[in-house]
Amino acid sequence: MELTGRWLPRSIECLRGYTFGKFSQDAVAGLTVGLVALPLAMAFAIASGVAPQAGLYTAVVAGFLISALGGSRTQIGGPTGAFVVIVAGIVAKFGLSGLALVGMMAGVLLLVMGLTGLGTAVKYIPRPVTIGFTGGIALLIASTQVKDFLGLKTPPVPSEFLGRMEVLGRYLPTVQWTTVAIAVISLVVIVVWPRVTKRVPGSIVALVLGTAATAMFHLQVETVGSRFGGIPQGFPHFALPQFHVTHVIPLLPAAFTVALLAAVESLLSAVVADGMSGDHHNSNMELVAQGVANVVSPLFGGIPATGAIARTATNIRSGALTPIAGMIHAGTLLVILLVAAPLVRFVPLATLAAVLFVVSYNMSEWREIGTILRLSKTDIAVWFTTFALTVFADLTVAVGVGMALAALLYIYRIAETTSVAPVTAEYLQDGQAHILQDKEIPANVTILRIHGPFLFGTTEKLAEASRDLNQFAAVVILRLRNMTALDATGVHALEKFAERLRRSGKVLLLCGARDQPAQLLSQAKFSEHIGAENILPHVQSALVRAREITGEFDGVAVELASRMERGPL
To answer: In the structure, what pLDDT confidence band is assigned to residue 259 with cuts at 50, 70 and 90?
Structure first.
């Protein structure tokens, strides 16, 4: 029974007790996120160097399979920005058959990762590497959209970043101001519309307005129709790609990179979904679903797919309860292909460029870069190297070099935690304030300890230990006396933990941090998250601070009781 449950898709589990009321909520969420996915799917496909319908086919086929077979209740799958750069490079060098081969090989690798329990391996990618390659991808995506945003008339634009920017700069005088106007208005609508209402996505409003203006006023701007001849109306067609055996070995590194990116982004999206919905996803089942989706998608003209964080968040905010919502999202896009495909030819590429500019900004995580720049020089070096290699070299190289550097730094940090020193009277006296055995712990205080290095690959243990915050008291003391080393990934995990406690109305105290962790927390300005007064030198002072806080709570409770006795609040 345990084995069956381990490999049971969440869509099957959720059918138990499924009601019409739940279906209604899932239907609304599925329709909403389906409309959100429409411009994104086309934009990602165009940016990847393939026809817009390839993105829609991916969202339909892979999106349905990821929801139907996956290990998350609310995950939405489809084409994402993570693949744009590598897909464009594969298409330029090996054509669509090479892309299909990469997608299917990546799918097989994902299946192996899921079936062998390697789904947990992606946690060994450190935060600076992740921020480095996502920031680099964001910059590259934005650079590919400058041409359509400005309506430039250029020869074929090079795939290399510097070459692309040189060509765009040379042909800047060919800017088309009508195109710029459409692009700027679309961008403003996407950014400003959420302040009006969040029920209708800004990207959809911009898409409708841009398409309507182009069709009604016969604007001289490039559209999906003028560049691609529109999109075919009807179901995605099944066709076996024409593979070249000689391409297998040259494309293997790209397949590994696609599989790695798909695993990282899908599991990161599933974690975000867990935090928003209170669910707990099955990592290995999620990777199995991603593998099946990426094997099948190329058979219908699709491109690589993974979990999409923004669309998953939209799905949850729209009221999704089960994977049925994700399946309805795929069905919504299929209906559009069957009914409204002829209208897509009027969609201006400038509007899709504006959509991708916003996507690039959101995926760049610039705020996270600011945090990393406050940390150690080694973390900054890993981030900058990964970022620079992503932009100026190759994503496969960037991830490989970033991981190698992170591994060397991991060994270095572990080595630095070893110390040899005599036990003296001063050492024994200083340690007395850190000892728990002789201290009274109040009933409304929970003490949590971290023992050993808290580096990438180990931070998930804090999330596991604190999954149910209801079991924690009002004041949580995180004892760091035996935490021997800390890195950027560890700092990020502590920040997330502090935020979760704050949202649940609890107070976090840190105590006993050793030299290296204490210095890194100071550089990261961790005190901004919990207050400098809540970072203590040892557990003895932390217990004193906890009693002060609980006394304040008690004082508030007494005051409320007194006011209630005097009359209505």
So the answer is: very high
Q: Which helix (H) or strand (E) holds 477?
A: strand 475-479
β-strand partners of 479? 449, 511
Pairing between strand 306-307 and 77-78? antiparallel
Q: Which residue intervals of 442-487 are DSSP H helices?
A: 460-465
User: How far is 487 from 528, CA to CA, in rounded Å?
Assistant: 18
CB of 106 closer than 8 Å to CB of 384: no
Place of tokens 């898409």: 207
Positive or negative, the CA dihedral 109, 97, 305, 400 is positive
Considering only residues 457 and 12, tell me which one the structure prediction assigns the higher pLDDT: 12
Instruction: Tell me the mean pLDDT in the region 452-479.
Output: 87
Strand ranges of the sheet holding 475-479, from the earlier edge strand across to the other edge: 445-449, 475-479, 507-511, 535-536
Four-point Cα dihedral 522, 424, 452, 505, nearest 10? -50
User: pLDDT higher for 315 or 271?
Assistant: 315
What is the spatial distance between Cα 285 and Cα 281, in angstroms, rounded to a whole number?
A: 9
For 139-185, what is each residue's pLDDT tens digit?
Answer: 988 998 999 999 999 998 887 889 999 999 999 999 999 999 999 99
Can you give the length of the chain in residues? 569
SS (H, E, C) 137-158: HHHHHHHHHHHHHHCCCCCCCC
C-alpha dist (Å) from residue 506 to 272, 444, 464, 469, 529: 21, 11, 18, 9, 13
Pairing mode of beta strands 535-536, 507-511:
parallel
Rg of the chain over all Cα atoms, to the nearest angstrom: 26
Dist. CA 438–CA 359, nearest whole Å: 55
Cα gap 421→91, rounded to integer Å? 60
Contact 309, 37 (CB under 8 A): no
Long-range CB pairs of 360-364, under 8 A, 24+ apart, other chains included: 360/81, 360/138, 360/139, 360/141, 360/142, 360/145, 361/138, 361/142, 362/310, 363/81, 363/82, 363/134, 363/137, 363/138, 363/141, 364/134, 364/135, 364/138, 364/139
User: How many CB atoms sit inside 10 A of residue 378's CB?
Assistant: 17
The full set of domains in the chain, from first to last, is 19-369 (no CATH), 426-566 (3.30.750.24)
What is the rounded CA–CA span in Å between residue 44 and residue 51? 10
Q: Report CA dihedral (210, 213, 215, 220) to the nearest 10 degrees.
A: -90
**Nearest Cα residue to 433 out of 560, 314, 539, 544:** 539
pTM over 0.90: no
Alpha-carbon distance of 401 to 319, in angstroms, equals 41
90 near 54, Cβ under 8 Å? Answer: no
Measured at the alpha carbon of residue 292, what is the angle toward residues 3 and 319, in degrees to the nearest 5? 80
Least confident of 27-31, 395-399, 494-498, 510-514: 395-399
Quickly list DSSP for 323-363.
THHHHHHHHHHHHHHHHTGGGGGG-BHHHHHHHHHHHHHHH
Closest CA to 377 of 282, 487, 283: 487
